[in-house]
């Protein structure tokens, strides 16, 4: 395992065998996967390391969610649907704060369920309604369970293993 210097005082972790080639470039840290510029084109470090299937919209994900860990054992090629699911909760939509701190959970403001917490998840453009719950935590647990069922090892979890707040 070797480290490649990036901008902003950061480093990327790469395999020993990839270090000689990758260290020839100047790499930029921008909060996501490190990239370099070749002419007018930005190229992600992961593009040098992993090849996707032709004709598919593929995304390289970092298994441990550390985008600076570019060792091949930490990289996996997934389709865009899995990649989109695995992103963190959006804190704001169109400048308006969301109602829940958990992904897939929202506070119901109108109707007979007003005041309850609703949970839902989407895969391949199909939306799954998981129900209305008395607490935000219960709704997020329902989301986590369905996410594991739909996405397996790539499931985004509001409560990662060992971080379930005593639940």
Task: Compile the SSE list and pairings.
Layout: E1 2-5, E2 11-14, H1 19-22, E3 35-38, E4 41-44, H2 45-49, E5 58-62, E6 75-79, H3 80-85, E7 92-93, E8 96-97, E9 105-107, E10 117-123, E11 126-133, H4 136-151
Antiparallel strand pairs: 1-2, 3-4, 5-6, 7-8, 9-10, 10-11
Please state the oligomeric state of the protein chains shown.
single chain
Beta percentage is 25-35%
| Unreliable stretches | none
Helix content: 10-25%
Based on Cα principal axes, name the global outline. elongated
Number of helices in the DSSP assignment: 4
CA radius of gyration: 19 Å
Beta strand count: 11
Tally of discrete structural domains: 2
Largest sheet: 3 strands, antiparallel
- SSE pattern: EEHEEHEEHEEEEEH
- Spatial gap, N to C terminus: 37 Å
Mean pLDDT: 81
Specify the structural class: alpha+beta
Strand order of the largest sheet: 9-10-11
Verbal overview:
This protein has 167 residues and is an alpha+beta fold. Helix content is 19%, strand content 29%. Strands 9-10-11 form a three-stranded antiparallel sheet. It is elongated.
What would a concise description of this structure say?
The chain is an alpha+beta fold. Strands 9-10-11 form a 3-stranded antiparallel beta sheet. A two-stranded antiparallel sheet has the order 1-2.
Keywords:
GCC-box Binding Domain; alpha+beta; two-stranded antiparallel ribbon; elongated; 167 residues; three-stranded antiparallel beta sheet; 29% strand; 2 domains; 11 strands
């Amino acid at each position: 395992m070797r480290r490649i210097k990036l901008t902003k005082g950061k480093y990327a972790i790469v395999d020993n065998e990839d270090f000689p080639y990758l260290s020839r470039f100047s790499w930029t840290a921008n909060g996501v996967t490190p990239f370099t510029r070749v002419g007018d084109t930005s190229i992600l470090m992961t593009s040098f390391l992993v090849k996707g299937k032709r004709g598919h919209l593929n995304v390289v994900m970092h298994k441990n969610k550390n985008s600076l860990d570019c060792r091949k054992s930490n990289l996996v090629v997934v389709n865009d649907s899995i990649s989109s699911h695995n992103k963190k909760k959006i804190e704001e939509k169109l400048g308006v704060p969301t109602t829940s701190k958990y992904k897939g959970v929202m506070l119901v403001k109108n109707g007979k369920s007003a005041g309850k917490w609703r949970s839902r998840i989407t895969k391949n453009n199909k939306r799954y309604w998981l129900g209305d719950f008395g607490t935000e935590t219960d709704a997020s647990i329902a989301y986590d369970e369905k996410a594991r069922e739909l996405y397996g090892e790539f499931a985004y979890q509001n409560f990662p293993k060992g971080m379930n707040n005593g639940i």
